[in-house]
Amino acid sequence: MGAGHAHRLYRHAHSPVHALPPHTKLAAAFAFVIVVVSTPREAVWAFAVYAVLLAAVARTAHVPLTFLLKRLLIEIPFVAFAVLMPFVAQGERVEVLGMSLSVSGLWGAWNVLAKGTLGVATSVLLASTTELRALLLGLQRLKLPPLLVQIASFMIRYGDVITDEMRRMRIARESRGFEASGVRHWGVLAKSAGALFIRSYERGERVHLAMVSRGYAGSMPVIDEVTASRAQWSYAFALPVAALAVCLLGWSL
Amino acid sequence: MHVPDGFINAPVSVAAGVVAAGAVAVSLRGARRELDERIAPLAGLVAAFIFAVQMLNFPVAAGTSGHLLGGALAAILVGPYTGVLCVSVVLLMQGILFADGGLTALGVNISVMAVTTTVVGYAVFRGLVKALPKKRRSVTVSAFVAAALSVPGAALVFTLVYAIGGTTDVPLGRVLTAMVGVHVLIGLGEAAITAFTVGAVIAVRPDLVHGARGLRQKLQLRVGGELVDATPAPEPQLAPALSPSHRTRNVWLTGLAASLVLAGVVSFYASASPDGLEKVAADKGIDAKVEEHAAAGSPLADYGVEGITDGRLSGGLAGVIGVGATVVAGTGVFWAVRKRRTDGTEDTPAAVTSPGASA
Fold this sequence. Notes:
Chain A has eleven helices and two strands, in the order H-H-H-H-H-E-E-H-H-H-H-H-H. Chain A is mainly alpha-helical. By secondary structure, chain B is mostly helical.
């Protein structure tokens, strides 16, 4: 409501990456992450090369680095976990700055941090260069069950509506002087959640009736079939193929 | 609790992906039983609800707050299959769009957070509801216990996955105690919120709570100070079952007869004065510019049959001929459409059912 036509995750631009068909981008992103995850953690330089590759993609897609870094903040909980790891892992220990740290724990922390960060960056790039609807079309094209895609599209379409409804309920609570400060207020919040569920469910029933009255019979018509040429596929797969070369080098060295 | 990329090694991630895909395929099948053809909008909206409610923060104490995971809640409110489906869709979208949880870890995330929480939650819930007396209170109590067990259960499964394919060698015992210990606490919060929420929904719309089906009390009447079971309202008498083709033919014949009567007999007595629009047009002089219709010279022009001088008889005959022509044309169109529809539907069910296997 009141938002623009595109979701806030999407960054509108005209770039070769934006222009690629969604399913090629999805497949390429998945392939890239799989390659990254199967790289040995001792090949530290390989992860640097991956980061450079991703930066190159971001540059072609006109996604500013600050935007990318800001969205990377989502993985902070796991950074905290990774920082703990050298302290709790076993094995031989090294002295760093007067602290006794486990070597394998350090490797583990590095592993999770590097691979996790690259994975998050890939997802962020994918979401900021592909419109939501196109992503769903791409998922359908990649043979995800149509029913699942339909459910996902309804979730995306009404996610903001339901979240806004929740926000309005919060404003209503606060304007009546309610402030949740502890466990004692869970009852009130849970009643809001219950009301939100009833409203969502009833909205779903209304949406279904509206669809039936417009001729819905269980499957959505496919209006725009997305297709990709061989050139587009090879362009999209430049990233994972380059990564695969790096990965193989990493295993052999 | 979203697992990032690189936390579980590649082979185990793939195996978990296969497990998750199987579970989602089974749930798609089961959810269609729970929600029939309303599944897409309803499951979508429930997924949107889960997504929203995960953002609802519950303050714990000075500054810290928790939020709902929603697996057990979804299972109790809309049924286990739909619950698995909704939470899986939420996780899928969080992974792809919000970069919350790694892409390669999607299988692990779905197996742990969608499948385990809903299955454990629902199994415990069902068992308790069966064992406890049939009261509203026992539903909330069962919801509490189910949610309280579902979260440590998920932590346990996560530890198992970690034991098989973890990439760090933190000793297993320590992981187990840390994960389960922390998640017992989280589970208590989840349990309280789930129980409160289920209670709130039951108070308003008990019919919406999947887990509380069969709790509806029998209607009782107070007759002379005593409670008597009301006899259930008689089922509305259905017309004797006719075969569909029989029924359509009856409808068709009745409609035809009614149209013929209306057109042939009633138009006999119909007002000869012009209808509203024609009258307004005539009054305001709009129709000065009206050109004669292209079919004005046809034998049925102006709803009269040429060559028959009696106005009423002519009008009636024109009506009957008009109805006949409309019926013939309409039936032709209907047949054509139905033929195309049956051609079309032959491949739609296949398109809907077959991808379930490739999930």
